[in-house]
Every structure is written in C-alpha cells, then in structure tokens.
Write a structure and sequence with these properties.
single chain; mainly beta; about 40% strand
C-alpha cells in the first residue's frame, strides 16, 4: 500500500471532500512532488493490473481551452511528456493529503470538438518505455555480471536517470553463465525477475521496484460493510481455470555432463482445497529461465511463484469508497455481513471524480503448505 497517514485511512471511511491534481512534466523526474504545469481535471480514472506488462494506465479528461496543439514542443503531445496524477482528501482545516498514483507517459491526445472542448489524455506508466524500447542489436552479458548491472544497462538506456530499487543485494547476485538479450528488452528483464521469485513495477514515486510480493497474511486494509464501512457492492465467482497447485522451474545447463537444474514446489497442505494429492487434481505451471543455474534458485523461484498465485478458485469483484493508497498485490480483508475473507488485489480502477466508486477484482488466499522437491 502506498504511504498515507492513519488520519487519511480514517477520513475516507466517512463523508469527505476529495482532492485531485494532475501535472504535465516535460522532464524525467522522480519523487512525489515533481515540477510541472497543473491541469484542470474534468474526469478520468487510473487502472492497475498486477499481471499486465504495463501495470498502470490513466484515462483523463482535462480542460481543453486553448490547449490542443500539433507542435512537438507543446505540453499535451505524445512525444515524451508525462502526467503525474494524484488523488487525496481535503481535511476540515483546509489542508490536503495527496496520494500519488504515478507517472504516465502520454500516448493519446483527443479532442472531440474544437477548439476548447475537454481533451482526453491516455497514458501508460514508465514500463511502457521498456516495452517499446526493443533492442536493435543483441546485448551479451558475460558470466560474473551482477543483476543490478544488467538492470542499469537495459533500463537506463531508456531512462538514463532512473532509480532502480531492489529488496536484496543485487550487486552480489551474479550470472553463472553468459546470456544474450536478443530483441525484447522487457521480456528479458521479466524472465530475470521471475527467476528470482520477484515482481517488478514502477511505483508511485516513479522508481522501478524489484521485490518480493507482499506477505499475503498481513492485510493492509479492511473493505467492510456496516458502520464506518466502505464496501458498496460485491459479487462472487468460482472458477478454477487460472488456478494451479505446483510450479516446476527449469534452469540452464551449466556443464555439458550435468543436467539442467529443476525445482518443484507443491501445495502439500491436506486442508487446502488445492492440495496436490487431493480431489482438485494435479495442475502444475512450468517456468524456464537461463538465469536459474542452481538447485536453490530453482526451488526458490518455484515456491515464490506459487506463493503469490495460489488460492481458491474463488474471486470477488467489489465496489467501494475509493482508497487510492491501495495497489495490486496488496492483501486486503473483505468483510461482509456473513463473514470475511482474505484476498489479494489483482486488478483495480481508481476514479478521478466524486461520483464513481473504486472497483477491485481479487483472488482469495488460502492457508497452504508449500513443499519443494521432486514428486
């Protein structure tokens, strides 16, 4: 969850006045208070998806009075400018507390009627630059290159001053064999991140994060009905189509006479509905990576991938009073009149107006016992 005060979390549970702020940036910046030109927001929303290549997108309507231009140097043009988007609350004292929803590269600029009608802006977070920036020539990384050096090379070629944050010492995590990034810069980095059991995304302050997903047992917010509740509506669904109960990670063959490493993680909790030896059946997912060269890496990747994906084939779609501090992979508690469940946020939409609720899609988390080792 993005950083906010306890006062903020209390205020959004009752009647409150919202604050919206959008700034256009003409230079690459980092942090939660960049320098830019403020726009008047008419409407819009920010959409976030945990499994999408580009995690966050924005769809904005802003005041278009004299603002549309085809000049490449104009503010509202898709030639490299970004918008920085915030939603927050206004306290009774008149003070504001904003929550950054992130930096978005402008991709679409549309005005349905000229010359002064509202302008629609479509934007994508900074991962879009990595996705777009395909390599025009292969890049080789030799054995002994650190993971942090690989990221510095491939990310800072697109964003020279980018901040990259790891939740472990990536300078001592070294390649055991040489690897080549052929064309798809993003897929190469994503495979590398997954091989370490991590996730990567551009955060609210414009930094690239490479880290473990949050602990599913530590819920960060209660979306509840009743007194001081924020839950408006909820629907529930059971669908086993995207659920698996084992992960098999296949690594690189380091020596000719030694087979590639292979790590397996399974749900071995007999009380879990997705128990490997239970009636749910055996449903493994396979992952292969040239970055996995040891048994420990293979088993770690398998267990971490399984840990953030396992759960009942039970999901909820809910609408609630917006809490813009929430983000994908946040563990939440959903409390209804008939009980509560722990869920992991998969997808969400945060409105940029006073009329619409926040919508969230989740997967319920269950207690599992992940065991590594061959079947």
């Amino acid at each position: 969850m993005r950083p906010v005060t306890s006062q903020f979390l209390n205020v959004i549970r009752g009647s409150h006045q919202i604050a919206l702020r959008v700034r256009v940036l003409t230079s690459f910046q980092t942090g939660v208070n960049p320098t830019g030109t403020e726009l008047l927001v008419v409407d819009g929303n920010v959409h976030l998806n945990a499994t999408a290549d580009v995690r966050a997108t924005v769809d904005l309507e802003v005041d278009g009075t004299g603002a549309f231009t085809r000049d490449p140097g104009g503010l509202l043009t898709p030639y490299g400018n970004e918008v920085f988007v915030e939603r927050g609350v206004i306290y009774g004292t008149g003070t504001h507390e904003y929550v950054s929803l992130g930096y978005f590269r402008i991709y679409e600029v549309e005005q349905s009627n000229q010359p002064d009608y509202p302008i629609r802006l479509g934007g994508r977070d900074r991962m879009s630059g990595i996705v777009d920036g395909r390599l025009i020539a292969p890049v080789q990384f030799v054995a002994g290159t650190s993971i942090s050096a690989i990221f510095n090379t491939l990310v800072q070629e697109i964003y020279p001053t980018a901040t990259i944050q790891f939740d472990y010492n990536a300078t001592t995590d070294l390649l055991q064999t040489s690897v080549v990034a052929d064309e798809d810069r993003y897929s190469f980095l994503r495979n590398l991140v997954t091989s370490r059991g991590k996730i990567m995304y551009w955060d609210h302050a414009g930094r690239l994060q490479v880290k473990d997903a949050p602990n599913v047992n530590n819920t960060v917010f209660d979306i509840n009905s009743g007194e001081d509740g924020v839950l408006i509506e909820v629907s529930r669904r059971l669908d086993r189509g995207s659920v698996y109960n084992a992960v098999v990670t296949l690594g690189e063959q380091v020596q000719l006479d030694v087979p590639p490493v292979r790590g397996v993680a399974r749900d071995m909790n007999p009380l879990s509905p997705t128990f490997w030896d239970g009636p749910f059946g055996k449903v493994p997912r396979f992952f292969s990576s040239p970055f996995v060269t040891t048994q420990a890496q293979a088993e770690s990747a398998s267990s971490k991938i399984l840990a953030r994906s396992i759960g009942l084939p039970y999901s909820v779609t809910l609408s609630a009073v917006p809490n813009p501090a929430l983000e994908p992979y946040d563990p939440i508690k959903v409390t209804r009149s008939d009980g509560y469940d722990k869920h992991l946020i998969q997808e969400m939409t945060i409105p940029l107006n006073v009329d619409r609720p926040m919508t969230i899609n989740t997967r319920e988390q269950t207690t599992v016992d992940i065991v590594t080792g061959d079947v």
